[in-house]
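Entry:
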Amino acid sequence: MTLPQPFDIKIIGERINPGFKSTKALFDNSDIPGIQALAVRQAEAGAAYLNVNIGARALTDAGFMAEVIRAIQEVTTVPISFDFPSKKVQEICLSSYDVAKSAGRLPIVNSITEHRWDLMELASDFKFKVILMASERVEDVDGVKTARGNKTADEIYTTARRCALRLVQDYGMSLGDILVDMSISAIIADTESLNRNTLDAVKLIGRDPDLKGVHMMGGLSNIGQQLPPKAVDGSDLKHCLENAFLTLAVPYGFDTILGTPWRGYAPLPDDNYVLKTYRNFLEQSGTNALRAVRKFYKA
């Protein structure tokens, strides 16, 4: 039997994050060798970047944050994505990062949104790539700037376009240095067609000639949240859902994921049970969507 070839995508290694219990223990114990080993494991598994998030400690222990970054750069040349919403923390990260130790490759600021644009003030002192969240926009409501969540495909697309072109025009960034996070939602309670709208937005961005070269990405770990481990056909439900999303999104330019490098992401054949069930789910909304979700794990 011929095995499917892996997707031609880049993986931002997600494991240096306190959301993983084993990693949280490393942070709690200030286990620098353990953090280094985790960085090396992800790099050896093919990570193009290493996402680094030490949680709330980043706000109270700048020294440890800097130590983690320097320690990772001692053992791997893979560039780092700094995952904090705080300008203060991002400045510490960028100041601690040595571009030369990553073979001249820039770090990533993860992430900016239209209402958290102050992070771009750092561009006057540092060079970096950005992860741009397309799930949130700013509206002027009676003279007051208000953050709104994006749900429709057009809202996601127009926000991504507006912000990406602003980064190019106002900050001289290249589209290739911009990664648009498409915010992949859990299907368990998706009654508003959020998954379908995200996929439709991927198509809109991929077709826009003014955005040619921009990268589209997302974290896959949410999609199978709170679902049983096995699908009806006995397959790994969460992993197959991740691959189902990628099977539909990659052909339209979705090319980067925040994920675990050793999981192995590959296209699913058209007759795959989870892919077929996911396609059916995408056509539903409201209570019909909830019924469609149960078909993943109930015969």
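The longest strand covers residues 10-16.
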